[in-house]
Amino acid sequence: MRRLPSPINLEAMKREARDLLHALRRRDAAALRRYYGVDSLAGMSPPGLADARYVIAREYGYSSWQNLQRYSVDVARKGALGSEQHDYRSSECEAANPSAPRIP
Hints:
Helix content is 58%, strand content 0%. The protein is mainly α.
């Protein structure tokens, strides 16, 4: 599981997803390994941006791009407001890798 950068940069992760999508469309071997490594249904249809974003989210331990995005917004709010934040990582990711550090 990858660790989120500090500070979290959602725009950089969006660019990474677009780059991954372009690599998938070129049939890049490393990109395909990442894709097939997180999605058992990969290859059923041509990959789209949502698929690339899903791969990025799963690599960071989140069940969806939306949960990763919510977490990044929470982190930004916490920095601005000093409020509590919720970790939106999926429980199945935590069960698969219980020794992975939780993101503060």
